[in-house]
Design a protein that fits this description.
mainly alpha; about 80% helix
């Protein structure tokens, strides 16, 4: 990028930075959604929060159901990849 181009596009720098951050967050979220260890870690964290009284029973059950569903989807997805 030349000096003139750099000067002309300087006002767009914050936008490019914001887009880059959004892309990094999306990439990390995709990794965590498909990572069994991350899901299990979230499940343990929710259980600890419930036991500490930070979550109500309904909140904990909703979180637990969603995380267990994600684990099940991962298990079925992995099984489908292995089967011919």
């Amino acid at each position: 990028m030349g000096l003139l181009t750099g000067l002309l596009t300087l006002p767009l720098a914050p936008v490019r930075g914001t887009i880059w951050i959004a892309e990094q967050l999306a990439d990390q979220a995709a990794l965590e959604l498909g990572d069994e260890r991350a899901i299990r870690r979230h499940l343990v964290e929710a259980e600890l929060a419930y036991e500490a009284g930070e979550l109500g029973e309904e909140e904990f059950e909703a979180i637990e159901d969603e995380l267990l569903e994600r684990l099940e989807l991962l298990a079925h997805g992995a099984a489908e990849e292995v089967e011919p």
